[in-house]
Amino acid sequence: MVRRAHRCDVQPVMVEPPCSEALFSEGSTLDLFNKAARYKRADDLKDSGLYPYFRPIAESCGGTRVQIGGRELVMAGSNNYLGLTHDVRVMAAARDAVDRYGTGCTGSRFLNGTLDIHERMEERLAAFLKKDACITSGTGYQTNVGTIATLAGKSDVIFGDRDNHASIIDGARLAFARHLKYRHNDMEDLERLLETTEIVPGGGRFIVTDGVFSMLGDLAPVPEIVALAKKYGARTMVDDAHAVGVVGPNGRGTAEHFGCLDDVDLIIGTFSKSFACLGGFVAGPRKVIDYVRHTSRSVIFSASMTPGSVATVLACLDVIEAEPERREKLWDNVAYMKKGFEALGFEVIDGGSPILSIVIGEDVTTMEFNKLLFEQGVFVNPVLHPAAPPGMSLLRTSYMATHTREDLDEVLRAFKNVAEQLRIVR
Ligand code: PMP
Q1: Domain at 48-77+324-421: CATH architecture
Q2: Taking the model in full, what pTM does it have?
Q3: Element (DSSP H or E) covering residue 300
């Protein structure tokens, strides 16, 4: 069993900076930029050699291997679950779209930025998700912010899981709605809030949850959520950024997995994961989507998805619909890795998604572990407090349908070596 490391195992490196740093405006305590002058966490991490962020990829070989700083690494930290960023058909579709429409739309969907393929993509997505209609925005982040702020207002109450994605929280802020957070996946807590919260006349209840939670990779209990929504007259929205394309028998996401696709009002998704490019969508009842289409600030005041991205989404949809074996291969890989990590004695959080988070323990050990993995040729993502519970920092690993057994064995070998090196193996 791999032992969780405690603070005494390694020296701490993330020292909080003193507050008496030199100011940008000498002598002034009112300079807006003071906070930037005082910010030292990134520099401290760099000085300690543990800085794990913004690592520039010089080349990506098939998506499963990347070149960084002259080193080849197995990529076990992407959201490219189906490996479609490097599918020859998808790449050709993106190139053809650039030839036909150019590189960008230079305007919002509302005005000059709607292409015929935007409309085809939205119709195809709505049909795929068995919803009436769909509208896209530039990113999943924008889609959450725009949709929530459009549908909820001052009189409404948003009930959100405490671990929801930042874009949901920001959407609630922009909505100026009351935002009540329930304990992660805790349906008793959600019901308590629904029961005890008074709604002003004209207001409504909106339950919003991630379908797959991005850090731990666990699934929301969607059937229980929709049952509570029915009981308390609430509307529901599931952010299935990590699920559409991979979770559910046909890749329709968490609600399909649980057999309650019809009961969820709105499904949010992103194109930055299984759809191999950039953009976001919301699918739901026609009237609601039409309202979002004409009033969401993310749709109206921001440029539309580029032709290459739209064509990429259409080509990915073709693959997702025609090749269920890709999902099977992905789940085989996930099962193989889970078994492999457990055989090595690691504590694995497997929530039923392509994400396997490995519990390491203290922040510093996790960063150290991450650095040594990098040196051994493996790219993963450290998840520290507050994204993980205190003393339970994680290494978030995630898998692709296109990972080979050789890639996966390399990841397991590196984890074993580093655990031994850090002497955190019993
Ligand atoms: N929702 C969830 C649950 C996510 O994990 C993410 C991206 N990490 C987003 C929304 C935002 O998606 P995008 O990258 O398209 O902005």
Answers
A1: Alpha-Beta Complex (3.90)
A2: 0.93
A3: helix 297-300
